[in-house]
Design goal:
About 55% of the residues lie in helices and about 20% in strands. By secondary structure, it is of the alpha+beta class. Strands 1, 3, 4, 5, 6, 7, 8, 9, 10, 11, 13 and 14 form a twelve-stranded mixed beta sheet that branches. Strands 2-12 form a two-stranded antiparallel ribbon.
């Protein structure tokens, strides 16, 4: 193995010219620093974007009706149709790989066109008729009281869960809304809970200005009968909603006499598909980070290789003496390779430590800020990245020392001893 004398010789060789060694090491330090920082920044951006999904179940699609664009089975082109409660039961029965099928009705568009009144206060908010499962598809924090349950559905209770934005608009500061009544389009509903939705980027504030009531009470109070405005459909964890989407849409088309090739009659938004695109983007960003970082690191490795060539040239006499005294080619090669690997690893680990310090400082600053609306959150690198970086350093050290080592063992002892 490597004796103490050999290590002393390695350290002496590298410290004989401090400035040259430091400048050479800086190339590797900077390369590994750039690599780790780029990967951490990519992870921070990924965390921020995923936070923007607000905890929504990503294996979900939303489906609604549009206008039929083809005639079919005696039904004219351009006709309107509606989903029905029976469609929900049929989807659950025919597509067993689904976790939730939540019908939903809505008052007020995205701009909030309906009026909600409490005493002298009035506001315009989106009102949704939902089933209890919607809270698992579109998570929210219940800040007081409770959410809608199946007893409310079965008994058609006129109860409501309001957002913190609704509470601020209709109630005085510090006033408890639980047990009070609000009037939605002329119908009284008792408030049983308040919520705060998880952040969804620019929609975060609007997300707090919504009201949830039982689907059955909504249908009864606003004369919707068995009509369903749209559905939120989530697949089981071991299935992709994208793969099931075609079967779901085909089933709906068959039930409502829609032409099988009419792709415009059923509107849908596949959240899983969009989420997969985002994941693909971050995979590409990680690949770019590795590519750029390795290129910068390569420039540092080339610098080490050049310096090691100079060191071998300066130590030609020494190599000649060692060869004359019986040193084997592998002994000479091993000495040069060890010096190269040692310098590479020391400088590379310094770069990792420096990058870790920068990441810690960034996270420390982010901890002092409200990051709920930010698209950058918790930049970090995992153990796998560190292992990859160490592997790159070891391989780079070997490559940097290989050419100088081969050059050293090609020098003939007699020629080396004659060198001035």
């Amino acid at each position: 193995m490597f004796s103490r004398d050999r290590w002393n010789e390695i350290i002496e060789a590298l410290t004989s010219n401090w400035f040259r060694t430091l400048m050479t090491a800086f190339g590797v330090l900077w390369g590994i620093f750039i690599l780790v920082i780029l990967l951490a920044a990519g992870k921070g951006l990924e965390n921020g974007v995923k936070q923007g999904f607000g905890g929504i179940a990503t294996n979900t699609m939303f489906m609604w009706t549009q206008v039929a664009s083809r005639p079919y089975k005696g039904m004219p082109k351009g006709r309107f149709y509606s989903f029905e409660v029976e469609d929900v039961a049929a989807i659950e029965r025919e597509i067993p790989d689904l976790r939730f099928v939540s019908p939903r009705n809505q008052l007020g568009g995205f701009g909030g066109e309906n009026n909600v009144v409490r005493g002298l206060n009035t506001g315009a908010f989106n009102v949704y008729g939902d089933y209890p499962e919607i809270i698992q598809q579109e998570p929210m924090d219940i800040t007081s009281g409770r959410f809608v349950n199946h007893s409310d559905i079965d008994q058609k209770r006129k109860v409501a869960v309001i957002g913190t934005g609704v509470q601020a608009a209709l109630y005085d500061k510090g006033e408890d809304p639980l047990g009070t009544y609000i009037k939605i389009s002329g119908v009284n509903f008792m408030v049983i809970g308040t919520y705060k939705k998880k952040s969804r980027g620019g929609d975060a504030e609007e997300g707090q200005k919504e009201i949830f009531v039982p689907f059955t009470a909504f249908s009864q109070a606003f004369n919707r009968g068995n009509k369903v405005g749209w559905m939120a459909i989530t697949a089981k964890d071991n299935n992709s909603i994208t793969a099931l989407k075609g079967d779901i849409i085909d089933l709906v088309k068959e039930r409502h006499k829609i032409h099988p090739e009419d792709d415009r009659a059923v509107g849908n938004f596949d959240l899983y598909e969009e989420f997969s695109k985002v994941n693909g983007l971050f995979v590409a960003l990680k690949a770019v980070a590795y590519f750029v970082g390795v290129l910068v690191l390569l420039s540092g490795i080339i610098g080490i290789s050049n310096i090691m060539l100079i060191v071998v040239k300066e130590r030609t006499n020494e190599i000649g003496v060692r060869r004359a005294l019986g040193a084997t080619p592998w002994s000479i090669r091993g000495q040069i390779l060890m010096e190269s690997i040692f310098l590479t690893i020391i400088s590379g680990m310094s770069g990792i430590i420096l990058a870790t310090g920068v990441i810690w400082l960034v996270n420390f600053q982010l901890d002092q800020m409200d990051t709920s609306e930010m698209m950058f959150l918790n930049p970090s690198v995992d153990l796998g990245v560190v292992i990859v970086a160490l592997s790159i350093l070891i391989i780079s050290g070997l490559l940097a020392g290989l050419i100088p080592a081969q050059h050293a063992i090609k020098v003939k002892p007699v020629d080396a001893l004659r060198t001035e």
